[in-house]
Design a protein that fits this description.
This protein has about 230 residues and is α/β, with parallel strands linked by helices. The chain has two domains: about 120 residues, Rossmann fold (3-Layer(aba) Sandwich); about 100 residues, Winged helix-like DNA-binding domain superfamily/Winged helix DNA-binding domain (Arc Repressor Mutant, subunit A, Orthogonal Bundle). The protein contains eight helices and twelve strands. α1 crosses α5, α2 packs parallel to α3 and α6 crosses α8. The longest helix has 15 residues.
Length: about 230
């Protein structure tokens, strides 16, 4: 059995930290809890598997902690937002957060979200270390670096939105596997997403525009009629 996942809990409310940590430890996770953004930035050096991150923090705000986490770790991030703080929630997701939960929240729901985010972040055996010495995945002139959250085509860095990168990486670690739009929604979009599967179509179209020689005749992300999409390595 592998070691338990390490969760970093960041919240300036002591009671929230203690309750969340207690629930997560009951689930078998290893938990580190800190009360401000400065301490959170220092804790990033431990490369936690997942960060439960309040956005309203003293010293260094949560969005800045998220930016630094995305720049220096591959940690999954579940952000906590004040109910109704839609702009912060959207900014957090745009910066690469994996899910969000509005305060006040049920600790049991938070635990369920943590399990779901960690499942989505899992890399199949054999793919975790990539197929290059630096750990990146390479498919011809397309190189995908999960740690840096960066993709290059013919040596040029691609400008990908966080969800576009997530989609590309998910395809890359599951080559030749067919996914329906609903499969991709379940795997990559947060649990509270209330849109429809058409958003997957839009993201795939945008991704094809960036990685395909001819987006109208894709060779990397192909459509399997009546079933979904498949990544051709």
């Amino acid at each position: 059995m592998g070691s338990p996942a390490h969760i970093l809990v960041v919240d300036d409310e002591r009671m929230v930290r203690e309750v969340v940590a207690r629930y997560l430890e009951r689930e078998g996770f290893r938990v580190t809890a800190v009360g401000d953004g400065q301490a959170a930035v220092r804790a990033l050096t431990s490369s936690p598997d997942l960060i439960v991150l309040d956005l309203m923090l003293p010293k260094v705000d949560g969005l800045e902690v998220l930016r630094r986490a995305r720049a220096s770790t591959s940690s999954a991030v579940l952000i906590l937002t004040a109910r109704g703080a839609i702009d912060d929630r959207i900014t957090g997701l745009d910066l690469g957060a994996d899910d969000y939960l509005a305060k006040p929240f049920s600790p049991r729901e938070l635990v369920a979200r943590v399990h779901a985010v960690l499942r989505r972040a899992e890399v199949p055996a054999g793919a975790a270390n990539g197929n290059r010495p630096d750990g990146a995945l390479a498919f011809g002139d397309l190189v995908i670096d999960a740690v840096a959250r960066e993709a290059k085509l013919a040596g040029e860095v691609l400008t990908l939105a966080p969800r576009e990168f997530d989609l590309l990486h998910y395809f890359a670690i599951n080559p030749r596997r067919v996914f329906s739009r609903e499969d991709l929604l379940d795997a990559l979009w947060d649990l509270s997403f209330d849109g429809d599967s058409a958003t997957v179509t839009v993201h795939i179209r945008r991704l094809r525009e960036k990685i395909e020689a001819d987006p109208s005749a894709p060779e990397r992300i192909v459509t399997v009629r009546g079933a979904g999409y498949r990544f051709e390595p």
